[in-house]
């Protein structure tokens, strides 16, 4: 509905030129919320032509005296039953403000709708019926205003005409509600006696309340100010998405706190990756001198970074000097709206900013009905009640406590796909695993491993075994997707262009996120393998990154053992593998938190010790073999149905193909890896790439 | 036929710092509206699988398309769908064809079923308008969208004022107004059950005046029917046979804004289907109308 006030009352200024304040009217059912709104609109002459007559007709049709509440209670059921079911909004102009009045239902049953309305408000009017005093919904709404972060509150004691404008009665309620709010850390800006139906105290005082000295409702409304986005807090930009519509890689999101400046050093949490803001992107494009250099809290922006790092939805771009915590556990004070009580051990989804994680309720304390102030007993929070909970998240999330940032320190709880609660983060506990990433020294092998002692191997193993349970029932594509969701930071897929590798590469080609594809060129591969490499790059339109042996190490090795020295002893063979494959692999995995490889269980007796998911504690990463439980038949079926390019040597009896001097064809009845290092004992046939170190 | 489309001069938002304090406040407010809408559009695109923006060619959905271009840096990454009753004004079709091309939109035009197929118990204009609801259902089934982005605003009409930003619709497209999910702190319910879909409302928080102030600031083209000719103009555009002009002398966007600040005539006064009975519009909306 289009509600405007006439020129005569207040001078018209351009739309938007006055402060806009959103004010929610809350309180117990039937205490007169909708009536107060109707009266306010009437007082500022804010009703559109014909609306008053229409409301009179609607009231008469239902055999009721004139009913202001029908203005906002637009739904037929609301009018028939005389209750507000859902929240609504209406605009009005006061002398100083443009106001959005938010009507919120008073019934306990519709508390979710009250919260939906009140959460949008800068300020609140808490209404109390003078004949009834403070009731359970009065207390509940007061408590929720506190949890919703609405700090500006005025109290209106309505229906004073029904208590003959008795000052004593007013003082009694005033004292009770003031004490109530003080307990929640709220100080009302005014406590006003009114009769919404007759108009006393709404726009002007009448002789009936001559004993009252404070402001009218309208004057008190004008004293409210719009809540401002927190420009002065530490920078937080929760990432909504990363767009690659053209050659730019734009990180899109809305600045939650602080400001983003071109040239700022930032940390991408929870992974803790450092970067620098390269640009702020805008459309329509402007000349270079006009491009934005800074964006402040509240603004939706797109930025680019100075380096190519993996960033995804749910990450938070933080000021490098005071980043958010990377947390796996948090405590929060929450309200719960779902019919099924929230219980310890329950599984829910937690949303913070744009991040989401599944979570288990680890503990519940102080559960209470804020209306009756009655305790729920242990370990559950019933519908429309509040309590303190501890949550164990399944993945690390960037989190601030509410006290540090009221904007980002809030969580929303989702149950069965529907928002079911929310609250304030009291504390967040750091995640051990994911705070250690960031640039690693360029040194590899043993020194590099020693430098990674920050990774907690117990936690890594716990994570791997948790993932293994989930992965068991998933397809290879789902396993990869799940790994990407669960592992923050770089994930590397190493390919040697085997059948398994071709399948995985095909699955990766159907994804848009960045999982790095790397191959190790030992320098001794078959010509057919190089041909397949080139053919594969053409098919998928990619360049596969190759890592080669360090030339110094290689020259030393060949000088010491000879060009084919690996045939002479197992030690010489392992030395060759180390220089040509293992050391380049370490470089390929430097800084990675996840590794995807193509091992299958049935490939070798020894490889059966390997698993679908393993914790590589020394490398500080989780390793996934997505095809681990596939049979050779399944593998071949996938290859043929997707017409994947394969090594032409397979047709000549080669099964597992490595370096040319060390791979031979096998007979049909030989095990798959019998053609690798065929002169060595079966159980020792690993190059060291996939073996666990002692 | 040649249709002249009015294009007001844009004021680059980057220049606003030079303006006085009153002007700056207005621009701040438009920036705030814009940022919130962009946030909503990006959430819809990130969280839903297949969305379409409903382009009714009116002032509101033109602003919405413009906001989508801003949100995604010039390229609207989902279809713009016009559910066409076949009874729009010729100026509207000319506008659609010109700007679908100029803005490089992935335009889908979906037809509506004939009037005979519509609930005969509805009042005549509402029945006519309900064709669009049915056309929408057919288009949903055809394309399998799980999200439809619609340019409705709270200040247009009292049941729209009760809408969520992400508003779930049942399998039949029905709006269950008695069981709307909670929605707060810019967290949206984005998991429609199978067969259901979400209506996403990125400009729910805008007013009619905001739309015009933003249209002017950004230089968004408009259909000339909105500007007064011979003492009348259209405030809201729909089907040509059930939409009527209001008395007005506002021949420019500035004059429209000044007119809105003084008028007490509701925006949808010229839309016949809203006024046939007390619950006509609620019935339309519960059945899936926008």
Provide the β-strand percentage band of chain A: 25-35%
- Counted up, domains of chain A total 4
Structural class, from helix and strand content of chain B? alpha/beta
Taking all Cα atoms into account, the compactness measure Rg of chain B is: 18 Å
Structure notes:
The complex is a heterodimer of chains A (694) and B (290). Chain A is an alpha+beta fold. Chain A has 4 domains: 20-222, Rossmann fold (3-Layer(aba) Sandwich); 236-319, Elongation Factor Tu (Ef-tu), domain 3; 326-431, Translation factors (Elongation Factor Tu (Ef-tu), domain 3); 445-684, 3-Layer(aba) Sandwich (Rossmann fold). Chain A contains 15 helices and 29 strands. A 6-stranded mixed sheet of chain A has the order 2-3-1-4-5-6, with helices on both faces. In chain A, α12 links the parallel β25 (516-520) and β26 (545-547). Chain B has a 6-stranded mixed sheet with strand order 3-2-1-4-6-5, with helices on both faces. Chain B is globular. Chain B has 290 residues and is of the alpha/beta class. The longest helix of chain B has 27 residues, at 21-47. In chain B, α1 (21-47) packs across α2 (59-71) and α5 runs antiparallel to α6 (253-262). Chain B has a domain at 13-207: 3-Layer(aba) Sandwich (Rossmann fold), CATH 3.40.50.620. Classes of the chains: A alpha+beta (694), B alpha/beta (290). At the A-B interface, α2, β2, α4, β7 and β8 of A face α1, α2, α5 and α6 of B.
Give the gist of this structure.
The complex is a heterodimer of chains A (694) and B (290). Chain A is α+β, with helices and mostly antiparallel strands and 694 residues long.
């Amino acid at each position: 509905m289009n509600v405007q006030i006439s020129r005569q009352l207040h001078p018209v200024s351009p739309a938007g030129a006055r402060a806009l304040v959103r004010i929610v009217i809350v309180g117990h059912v039937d205490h007169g919320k909708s009536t107060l709104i109707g009266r306010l609109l009437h007082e500022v002459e804010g009703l559109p032509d014909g609306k008053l007559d229409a409301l009179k007709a609607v009231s008469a049709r239902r055999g009721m005296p004139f009913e202001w509440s029908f203005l906002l209670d637009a739904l037929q059921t609301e009018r028939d039953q005389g209750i507000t079911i859902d929240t609504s909004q209406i605009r009005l102009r006061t002398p100083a403000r443009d106001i959005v009045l938010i009507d919120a239902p008073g019934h306990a049953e519709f508390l979710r709708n009250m919260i939906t309305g009140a959460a949008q408000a800068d300020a609140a009017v808490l209404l109390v019926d003078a004949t009834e005093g403070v009731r359970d919904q009065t207390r509940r709404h007061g408590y929720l205003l506190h949890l919703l972060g609405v700090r500006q509150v005025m109290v209106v004691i309505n229906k004073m005409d029904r208590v003959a404008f008795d000052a004593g009665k007013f003082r009694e309620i005033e004292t009770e509600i003031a004490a109530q709010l003080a307990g929640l850390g709220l100080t009302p800006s005014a406590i006003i006696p009114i009769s919404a139906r007759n108009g006393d105290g709404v726009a002007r005082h009448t002789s009936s309340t001559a004993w009252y000295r404070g402001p009218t409702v309208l004057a008190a409304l004008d004293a409210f100010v719009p809540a401002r986005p927190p420009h002065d807090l530490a920078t937080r930009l929760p990432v909504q998405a990363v767009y690659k519509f053209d050659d730019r890689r734009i990180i899109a999101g809305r600045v939650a706190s602080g400001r983003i400046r071109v040239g700022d050093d930032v940390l991408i949490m929870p992974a803790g990756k450092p970067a620098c803001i390269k640009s702020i992107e805008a459309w329509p494009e402007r000349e270079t001198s006009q491009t934005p250099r800074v964006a402040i809290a509240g603004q939706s922006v797109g930025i680019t970074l100075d380096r190519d790092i993996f960033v995804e939805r749910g990450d938070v771009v933080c000021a490098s000097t005071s980043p958010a915590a990377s947390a796996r556990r948090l405590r929060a004070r929450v309200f719960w709206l779902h019919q099924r009580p929230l219980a310890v051990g329950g599984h829910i989804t937690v949303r913070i900013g744009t991040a989401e994680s599944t979570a288990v309720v680890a503990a519940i304390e102080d559960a209470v009905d804020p209306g009756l102030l009655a305790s729920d007993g242990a370990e559950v929070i019933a519908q429309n009640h509040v309590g303190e909970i501890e949550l164990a998240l399944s993945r690390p999330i960037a989190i601030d406590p509410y006290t540090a940032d009221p904007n980002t320190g809030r969580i929303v709880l989702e149950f069965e796909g529907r928002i079911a609660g929310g609250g304030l983060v009291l504390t967040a506990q750091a995640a051990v695993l994911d705070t250690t990433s960031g640039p690693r020294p360029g040194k590899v092998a043993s020194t590099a491993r020693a430098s990674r002692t920050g990774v907690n191997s117990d936690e890594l193993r716990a994570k791997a075994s948790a993932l293994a349970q989930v992965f068991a029932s998933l397809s290879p594509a789902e396993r990869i997707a799940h790994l990407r969701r669960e592992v923050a930071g770089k994930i590397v897929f190493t390919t040697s262009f085997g059948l398994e590798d071709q399948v995985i590469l095909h699955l990766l080609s159907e994804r848009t996120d960045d999982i790095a594809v790397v191959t190790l060129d030992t320098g001794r591969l078959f010509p057919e393998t190089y041909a397949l490499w080139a053919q594969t790059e053409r098919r998928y339109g990619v360049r596969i990154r190759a890592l080669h042996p360090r030339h110094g190490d290689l020259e030393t090795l060949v000088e010491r053992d000879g060009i084919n020295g690996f045939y002479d002893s197992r030690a010489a063979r392992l030395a060759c593998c180390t220089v040509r494959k293992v050391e380049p692999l370490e470089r390929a995995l430097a800084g990675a938190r996840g590794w995807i490889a193509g091992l299958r269980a049935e490939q070798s007796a020894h490889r059966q010790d390997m698993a679908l998911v393993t914790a590589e504690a020394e490398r500080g990463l989780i390793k996934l073999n997505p095809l681990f439980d596939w049979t050779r038949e399944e593998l071949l079926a996938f290859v043929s149905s997707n017409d994947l390019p394969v090594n032409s040597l397979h047709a000549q009896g080669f099964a597992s193909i490595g370096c040319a001097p060390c791979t031979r064809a096998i007979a049909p009845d030989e095990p798959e890896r019998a053609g690798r290092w065929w002169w060595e004992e079966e159980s020792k046939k690993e190059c060291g790439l996939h073996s666990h170190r002692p | 036929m040649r249709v002249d489309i009015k294009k007001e001069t844009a004021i680059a938002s980057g220049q606003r710092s030079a303006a006085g304090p009153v002007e700056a406040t207005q621009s701040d407010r438009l920036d705030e509206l814009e940022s919130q809408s962009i946030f909503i559009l990006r959430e819809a695109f990130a969280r839903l699988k297949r969305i379409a923006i409903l382009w009714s060619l009116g002032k509101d959905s033109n602003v919405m398309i413009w906001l989508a271009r801003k949100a995604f840096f010039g390229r609207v990454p989902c279809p713009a769908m016009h559910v066409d009753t076949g009874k729009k004004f010729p100026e509207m079709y000319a506008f659609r064809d010109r700007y679908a091309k100029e803005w490089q939109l992935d335009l889908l035009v979906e037809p509506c079923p004939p009037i005979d197929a519509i609930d005969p118990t509805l009042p005549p204009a509402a029945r006519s308008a309900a064709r669009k609801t049915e056309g929408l259902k057919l288009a949903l089934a055809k394309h399998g969208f799980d999200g439809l982005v619609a340019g409705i605003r709270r200040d247009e009409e009292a049941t729209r004022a009760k809408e969520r930003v992400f508003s779930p619709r049942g399998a039949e497209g029905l709006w269950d107004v008695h069981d709307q999910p909670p929605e707060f702190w810019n967290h949206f319910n984005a998991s429609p059950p199978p067969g259901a879909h979400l209506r996403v409302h990125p400009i729910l928080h805008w007013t009619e005046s905001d739309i015009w102030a933003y249209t002017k600031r950004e230089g968004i083209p408009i259909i000339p029917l909105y500007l007064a000719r011979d003492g009348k103009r259209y405030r809201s555009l729909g089907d040509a046979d059930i939409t009527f002009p209001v008395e007005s002398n506002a021949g420019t966007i500035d004059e429209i804004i000044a007119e809105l600040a003084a008028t007490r005539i509701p925006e949808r006064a010229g839309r016949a289907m809203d006024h046939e009975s007390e619950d006509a519009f609620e019935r339309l909306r519960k059945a899936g109308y926008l």
